[in-house]
Amino acid sequence: MTKRKTHRILGTLAAVLVFFLTWLVATESHGGAVAGTADYIEGVVTSSKGPETGVWVIAETTELPTKFAKIVVTDGQGRYVLPELPQANYQVFVRGYGLVDSARIPAKPGQHLDLKAVVAPDRRAAAQVYPANYWLSLLAIPKGDLPDKDVVLETKECFSCHQVGDLATREIPKSLGSFNSSVDAWDHRMVMGPSGPNMGAIFVRLGEQRKAFADWTDRIAAGAYPKGAPPRPTGVERNLVISMWDWAMPTSRRSDLAATDERTPTLNANGLVYGAIQSSDILAVLDPRQNATTHIKIPSNAPPIDTNTPTSPYWGDERVWQRSSDPRSVAMDSHGRVWVTARTRAPQQQPEFCKDGSMNKFAKYFPLPGPSARQIEMYVPKTREFTMIDSCFAADHNHFDENDSLVFGQTDAIGWLDTKEFDKTHDAAASQGWCPAVLDTNGDGKITEWTDPNQPIDPKKDHRISMGACGARGSAPGIRRSCASSEGPSRHRRVRGRCTCRPLTKCRCPVRAAWPSTRTAWCGRTGGAPIKF
What we know:
Helix content is 18%, strand content 26%.
């Protein structure tokens, strides 16, 4: 056989092979099931208007160890792929702006599934899936004793726990009871449940202007809806793939989670995810490979709290938030250990080394007599053991710095635990420190004698400020600490900044002023320190 003939035969075989593979792919794409153990569902979403672009395709299942959902967005031709699905039976449906939810269609991985989207019959029906803030925009800020900004700030107090504007908040449920007016209904709903006392106190500060909420729900009940539609996802937004697992408990609220050491994101790849669930005294644990969740009870010697809360509109008289450890935040170190802020003792049982008269150098410099709400616990996954570490400061949100010190936000100061020192000594007093918030008002570049927050500023001295820092960040190389502080009280401007501190010597806090505020809002991961202008 000649070389030319051999090449001709091989070329023909290659052409046949390409044709066969093309036919096979086309057959698989339109024939229902894909051969093998494919882990995806794909197809096209259309409606009476044609291909639907930028809408969500949602697959849900209850057949795994925990409830699981995956969400993707259709492309410019209405196509979608739900990738990396665990083997199970799924219910798949379409949701999008301008639509109402489609019927749920059963499907399995390896299946081609074209979906029929349902165009909303009117704009009010379409608005049922709009984000909560679109519905909240219908709330008219009323004129009254409080200026507009204070009404807005009081309303924002709700945002820590609620998506104000979602179905649960924009309607008054019949289960709440019968009332003479919608204002009475709102007054009642705001004092119910475990957070009732706090919610009620915030709500009553609005005075007569709280009637705006009754007017808001009345207008929605009468048919009002947001007129402007949100834009559908475009561009790279359509690349988003969301995997969701159900974890914790039905009554759980407020959680923080850690899946890795933030300084080394590849640590614990595909490993367990740990969540501090504040209301349930647990570390919730997710195994994303097995799609399974577990609970680890966080030990505590503290007396229980929220033992006698108002009746809940959903849980009745069950004490759903009664707890002792009250875990607030969680972080993972370079060894894969999990660090949690939690109540290990009663707040009044402040260690002596924290107080005035102690030989502790930090207590000599700035004593912390207490009470302190939370301390620190370390969980070692390999041994499944907790170690309680008492702290002078009230531990809140935390981050590791480059020296393996765990830095905490707290009131009026920044605290830290040197985990390397604690590993060596297991001595809580020798392993922790704290630094007060002091402004270098005399301009000498270091912390010197200061005036206290309730004293007038002396230009010859520094000035210590009151602040609440619920978040802190690890520092840059060569700098001992860095932090962010929260908003200030009345007659102060709110400012945001980052402080870099060398304990007992220097704290620098370049700040960025915000608009004047008379209320303290939730600070999240950042914030500001109050400074008079």
